[in-house]
Amino acid sequence: MGERRRPPIFWALALLLALFIAFMYGPILTIVVLAFQGPNGGLVFPMNGVSLHWFAELFEPQSIGDIRGSFDRSAALGLAVTICTVVFSFLAGLGFRRRFRGASLLLYLAIASLVMPSIVVSLGIGALFELLGIERHWYSSALGAHLTWTLPFGLLIMFAVFNRFDPAYEEAARDQGASGCQTIRHVVVPIVLPSLVGVALFGFTLSYDEIARTSQSVGALNTLPLELQAMQTNATTPVIYALGAATTGLSLAVIGTCLAAVLWARRRRARYGSDAGRAV
Predict the structure, then answer these.
(1) Cβ distance 223 to 138 under 8 Å?
(2) Which is nearest to 82 in space by CA: 231, 198, 243, 226?
(3) Staple partner for 81: which of 64, 88, 104, 207, CB 3.0–4.6 Å?
(4) Distance CA 32, CA 30 (A)
(5) CB 215 within 8 A of CB 225
(6) Which pLDDT score is estimated for 279?
(7) What is the chain's alpha carbon radius of gyration, rounded to the nearest angstrom?
(8) How many helices (H) and strands (E) does the chain have?
(9) The pLDDT value given to residue 85
(10) Residue 114 neighbours by CB under 8 Å, 6+ apart
(11) Contact 155, 89 (CB under 8 A)
């Protein structure tokens, strides 16, 4: 029998997928390529030389924006949101394993912000701080605004993880004399660690790229996405492309670090499981 030929619909779907990938990643690739123009390069093709000139310009004072300061604020805010999201989601996942009065209402309130327009959340938080006479900063009002976006995702992930968690592991640890804290530290956390890494990835990437929930809650000093948005109206050099390429590289580095952490956690858990099996 000859080789089975693929139906025409397969090639149509393959072409559609290729067009989608090109549409999604083509603009990013264009920005990265244009970021490596020479000192006399412009904002469009053809390129005028190849160099790292515009990446070096990122670290110099800019007349069109505060790139260095906005980057520092975005990185610090993303790190703070990541830590809070991981800690609160993990603790909430542990707490919701047992039913208690008002659990459903609390859950609905926690995830309600996912269906609310982001700009409405930002306006509400900004107006509340203005009403209370509290100055808005990235570490106060903007942090709270970002948590309304990242925490619901973290909660849903941890609820799904703990719904499949086998309590026999904890019972075995308690039978061996482990306390509650020791059980969580040495049994629960290693098992759910890949999921915690995923929650951290969600928290950082959602916070680092957020504009709508930041616009009215961050105060006078912009984060990097807001600064980049403002620069689009007055940037006349490829420095804006260098900034886009640098932020894309940072996002990819964070994703790669998280994937490496997941692989490390899985290998560590598999090694401990094999050691336990040999001990038995």
Answers:
(1) yes
(2) 198
(3) 207
(4) 5
(5) no
(6) 43
(7) 24
(8) 12, 0
(9) 94
(10) 149, 152, 153
(11) yes
Backbone φ/ψ region at 98: left (φ over 0), alpha (ψ -120 to 50), beta: beta
Nearest Cα residue to 200 out of 260, 137, 266 = 260
- The answer for 58, left when phi > 0, alpha when psi is -120 to 50, beta otherwise, is alpha
Residue 65, pLDDT above cutoff 80: no
Bigger pLDDT: 275 vs 130: 130
At 37 the three-state DSSP class reads strand
> CATH for 51-279?
1.10.3720.10
Indicate the helix (H) or strand (E) that contains 129: helix 118-132
Task: Name the band, by pLDDT with cuts 50, 70 and 90, for residue 86.
Answer: very high
Per-residue pLDDT tens digits for 208-231 = 888 889 988 888 888 888 887 777
Cα–Cα nearest to 248, from 190, 212, 210, 208:
208
Task: Return d(Cα 244, Cα 33) in angstroms, integer.
Answer: 11
| pLDDT per position as a tens digit, 137-162 | 888 899 999 999 899 999 989 988 88
What gap in Å lies between CA 52 and CA 32, rounded to an integer?
Answer: 11
